Amino acid sequence: MNRTKEIIHELKHHLPFTVSATIIAIIIVVGIKLIFNGVFEENSFEIFHPLHIIASSLVSAGIFYKYNPKIILAIFVGVISSILIGTLSDVIFPFIGAWVLNLKPGFHLPVFESPLKIIGVSILGAGIGILTKTTKIPHFIHVGLSIFASLFYLLAFTQEFSLLLLISSIFVVTLSVLIPCCVSDIIFPFFLLGKKIKDCPCP
């Protein structure tokens, strides 16, 4: 199986899981919102986005340091890759998706509005990755953090909570998570380290 076919094959494997996890996350969030009748989306985004950055930086720095044990360079790679992936997944893709669907989203970019916080947590994640030599975390944890971060972004920065928003969220969040997270967890190591993604028994 060549590289392109292997990547497409792996993305197909991840699509059902990502869609299912997104729907479950939406049900959980809607349930909490109905039960407690509160506005918590923006605060929740400010929690899940940094957690996503930490997880991504931890893995990226850990992988880089394992094969090129230079601390400063590994931290740099962890910081840049995690902020890039986290911003795309949690902010840029949800914003574009909401804008295309005319949901009138507001634009909130944490790395510009709270740079010390975002850079700080990315350095923390990179440091943990280097110290523990962690090269991976369970993919479902990374995907889960990203799903909740991008979902809370949609709910917090669009103008109204509606059925259209909930239905649209399934498609927007799935694409927002599937592409960047798979790039980070699968395609990035695959191309940079020259390793097979996985040994899959499927044809």
Q: Which structural category do the helix and sheet elements fall into?
A: mainly alpha
The percentage of residues in β strands lies in: under 5%
Please tell me how large the radius of gyration is: 17 Å
Question: Helical content, roughly?
Answer: over 70%
Return the average pLDDT rounded to an integer.
81
Provide a quick synopsis of the model.
With 203 residues, the protein is an all-alpha fold. Helix 2 runs antiparallel to helix 6 (139-157) and helix 3 (71-100) runs antiparallel to helix 7.
Properties at a glance:
203 residues, mainly alpha, globular, 80% helix
How would you describe what is shown here?
This protein has 203 residues and is mainly alpha-helical. The protein has one domain. The chain is 80% helix and 0% strand. It is built from seven helices and no strands. Helix 1 packs across helix 6, helix 3 crosses helix 6 and helix 6 (139-157) runs antiparallel to helix 7. The mean pLDDT is 81.
List the helices and strands and how they pair.
Elements: H1 3-36, H2 41-67, H3 71-100, H4 110-113, H5 115-132, H6 139-157, H7 163-193
